[in-house]
């Protein structure tokens, strides 16, 4: 059953005249007649009959009309919805998060955009800086929040967002769990978990203190590393802006002072939708950070 057959039959049922129905559908009368005959073949019986100059629906035609009319209305509604979405696509915000950068740092800015655009679709991608750069170049990401030490091609704009220090993340039963802050001396002999997505704080501390700690590599997401911390496999050094779930506790690393600059990057000159443009503007203004 073809939609054109249904459309022709519904027009004929309203006008009850083959000539006027063909004109309304912008087809020739023979073409409309053939389409109605094919529909009758598929439904197993005549849908209309002619009596002299009058055209009437058969019992089968009257029974099928509400269903075929609803089918046609549903198809028209679907086409109208698709056209509306095409003319006004859903607002989206695709943000890359570099090593050790959590979404909580920019969640306030995202919230402000979502308040103005209730249908906003938000997607985060965590990866190494080089991979995020490639994703932006291929238009898979709108922008990315990256450590300032990562290399960016010349065609990128970038803006400083904030500087952040490090905290030691440990289970609640750890000997240092009640301390407000810790130093490298306090952590002497501890196992420090590190990986490509933890932000590099553990490696920096290890280098600054000439290997006074043991390093245990833990590749994967930050959540996986926190699971190992909870299991007692070591301590993680993460950004002070990273959201850490309870019952894990955080202690500020006071000595040596480790910090890094974090910036927002986007491709210069690329057209941006209102969600992306608004997000970048808020971040540059320091709102929601």
Automatic annotation (TrEMBL):
InterPro entries in the record: LysR_HTH_N (IPR000847), LysR_subst-bd (IPR005119), WH-like_DNA-bd_sf (IPR036388), WH_DNA-bd_sf (IPR036390)
Domain HTH lysR-type: 1-58
Pfam families associated with the record: HTH_1, LysR_substrate
Annotated source species: Acidiphilium cryptum (strain JF-5)
GO-annotated molecular function: DNA binding; DNA-binding transcription factor activity
Descriptive protein name: Transcriptional regulator, LysR family
GO cellular component: protein-DNA complex
Keyword Transcription regulation: yes
Keywords: DNA-binding, Transcription, Transcription regulation
Similarity-based family: Belongs to the LysR transcriptional regulatory family.
SUPFAM superfamilies found in the cross-reference section: Periplasmic binding protein-like II, Winged helix' DNA-binding domain
């Amino acid at each position: 059953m073809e939609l054109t057959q249904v459309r022709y039959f519904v027009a004929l049922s309203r006008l009850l005249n083959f000539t006027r129905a063909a004109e309304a559908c912008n087809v020739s009368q023979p073409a409309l007649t053939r389409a109605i005959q094919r529909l009758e073949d598929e439904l197993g019986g005549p849908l209309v009959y002619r009596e002299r100059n009058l055209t009437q629906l058969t019992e089968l035609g009257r029974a099928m009309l509400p269903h075929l009319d609803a089918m046609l209305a549903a198809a028209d509604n679907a086409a109208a919805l698709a056209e509306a979405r095409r003319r006004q696509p859903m607002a989206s915000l695709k943000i890359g998060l570099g090593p050790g950068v959590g979404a909580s740092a920019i969640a306030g800015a995202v919230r402000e955009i979502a308040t103005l655009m209730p249908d906003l679709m938000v997607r985060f991608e965590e990866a190494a800086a080089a991979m995020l750069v490639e994703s932006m170049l291929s238009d898979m990401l709108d922008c990315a929040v990256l450590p300032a030490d990562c290399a960016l091609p010349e065609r990128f704009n970038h803006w400083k967002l904030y500087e952040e220090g490090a905290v030691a993340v440990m289970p609640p039963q750890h000997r240092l769990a009640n301390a407000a802050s810790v130093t490298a001396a306090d952590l002497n002999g501890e196992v420090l978990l590190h990986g490509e997505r933890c932000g590099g704080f553990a490696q920096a501390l290890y280098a600054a203190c000439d290997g006074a700690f043991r390093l245990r590599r833990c590749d994967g997401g930050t959540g996986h590393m926190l699971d190992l911390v909870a299991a007692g496999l070591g301590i993680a050094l993460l950004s002070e802006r990273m959201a850490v779930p309870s019952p894990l506790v955080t202690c500020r690393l006071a000595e040596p002072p480790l910090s890094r600059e974090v910036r927002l990057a986007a491709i210069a000159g690329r057209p941006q939708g209102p969600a992306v443009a608004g997000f970048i503007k808020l971040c540059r203004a320091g709102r929601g950070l």
